[in-house]
Amino acid sequence: MRNSSQSTLTVSRETGDPAALYGLWVGGSVDGAVLLVDFTLPQWWLENEPPVSLVAIYAKEAGRALYAVTDQAMSIDEFADYACFGDWASSRELAVFAPGRATGLQLTRIPKPWGQEIWFTGVEARGVCCFSDGRFASPIPWVQAAAPDAGQGVPGAPLVLLKILDPAPQEVVGDLYFELHEEKREVYVVTHVDATAWPEGRGGIRFGFDAERLESSASHDAFRAEYLQAVRSYEQVRRQIDGLPDGKSAPQPLLDEERSKRELMNDFTHTRSLEVGDVVVVPLLMPHSLQHGVRTIEFQTPVYERQILSFGQKVLTQDHWDTAAAVQQMRLTPPPEAPFEILSSKDDVIVERIVDFPDFEVRRVTIAAGAAMSHSVRGSYQLLMLIEGELELDGLLLSAESAAFLPSERSFELCSVDPSRALILLLALPRI
C-alpha cells in the first residue's frame, strides 16, 4: 500500500558479501528497516561469461526477516512511496523469501528430440530453474547467494537434480537415448503410462540385455562384439537419413533398411515392463532407455555426463555416438532387485527408502486419508515432490507433480488439504 505521508521504511545501502552484511545488519534492525547490498555473482553454470551484477534486498517486517534478489537497477528514493516492503516487492514483481521457510520450485521446460524434460532444480547452460514464493520467482543461484546462512543450499553447489521425463507417446520418436553413465546416479518413479501407446497400462524401459541372447553367445566378450557390430550397421543407415537436406524425405528402401537394422540391434536388449508406481534404480554403467509414453519423476546426481550407445533419431547435442567405448565397460545385466526398506509403518503412514545412493537417498511417503506425519529436516536441505493429493507448506499449495525445497533444521506437518484424500510424496535427502 502506498503511503502519502512519511514512509515507515528506512533504507540503507552497502556493497560486498550479502550474507556477511546481513549478519551485521539484522541484529540491530527494526520493523521497517531495509538493507540493499550490491554484489556480483560468478555465473559458474556458464562458460566464459562475466559475473552478473545483483542486488540483495533484506527487510524486517512484522517482526520477521525477509529477503529478495534482483538484477534490476534501483535507488533508495523509490522506497519513499511505500510503507510496506511486501507492497514494494510486489510492484517490482520480486519473489520474497523468509529464512527457514519452505520454498516453491518453479518448473522449467527443456525440449528434447524425444519429448521434454521438466526441471525443478537444474542450473546449467541449457536452463536455470527458480525458487518461487508462490507468486513470483528468482533464479536458484541468485537466491542461494543472497540467502542468510546458506539457507537455500550452499552457493555454487548444485542441488540434487529433480526433473520429470515426459516422452512423446509415439514409438521410436518418444524413445530416449540408449545410454549409460559413469558418475550420474538416477532413480525413476513412474507417474503416467500413455493409454494410446500402451493400451494395457504397462509401458517399458530398455534395461540391459536379453538373457537368452546373452546365454547363446560364446562369451560375454563375444556378445559385446556382436552387439557392437549390430549398432555400427544400424548407425550407417541412421547417418544416411540424418545427413539428408532439411525437408527431403528418405526413400522408402532406406526407411525399410533403417527399421530392419534397428530391430536387429534392439533384439540384443532387454525391455523391463513398467506401470504407474514402479521404481527404476539405474546402476552406474547400466545401458537404459525409457520408452515412449512413460512419464517419470527422476532424481539424479547433478552432473551432465553420458555415453550414447544408440538412438533412433538424429542426435542434436553431439556429432557422434559413444558405442565403442561404452560397450567395453557397460553392465550386461542389472543387479537383483531388493525390496524397499520400510523405515516406518504406523498410524496410517508408510515411509519407504526406495534408493540409497552414496550422495543422496530418496524416500516414498504414503499418508492415508485423514492421517498426518510430523517430518523433521536435519543436517541438510531436502526436496519434496508430490505425487498424489494436495499439500500446504508455509503458504505454498502443492498439487501432483509440484515440488518444494525444505530448509534444514525445520519440522513440518505433512497432511492432505482434503482429509478425505491420501497423500503420496517423494523426499530426496542429500548427503553433504
Q: Could you characterize what this model shows?
A:
The chain has 432 residues and is of the alpha+beta class. Helix content is 17%, strand content 38%. The chain is built from seven helices and 30 strands. It has a nine-stranded antiparallel sheet. A six-stranded antiparallel sheet has the order 6-7-12-19-14-17, with no helix packed on it. The protein has a four-stranded mixed sheet with strand order 1-2-3-4, with helices on one face. β8 (123-124) and β9 form a beta hairpin. α5 runs antiparallel to α6. The model is unreliable at 1-6 (pLDDT under 50).
Proportion in β-strands: 35-45%
The pLDDT mean sits at 94
> What quaternary form is this?
single chain
Q: What value does the Rg take, in angstroms?
A: 25 Å
- Outline the biggest β-sheet: 9 strands, antiparallel
Helix content: 10-25%
Low-confidence stretches: 1-6
The strand line-up of the biggest sheet is: 11-10-5-28-25-30-23-22-21
Category by helix and strand content: alpha+beta
The helix count comes to: 7
Shape category: globular
What's the N-to-C terminus distance? 43 Å
Number of extended strands: 30
Structure described in brief:
The chain is an alpha+beta fold and 432 residues long. The protein contains seven helices and 30 strands. The chain has helices spanning 18-26, 85-91, 140-146, 211-216, 220-242, 252-266, 323-329, and strands spanning 10-15, 33-41, 52-61, 64-70, 103-106, 108-112, 115-119, 123-124, 127-128, 130-132, 137-139, 161-167, 178-180, 186-193, 203-209, 269-274, 279-282, 288-290, 294-300, 307-310, 341-346, 349-356, 360-367, 372-377, 382-388, 391-393, 396-398, 403-406, 410-415, 423-430.
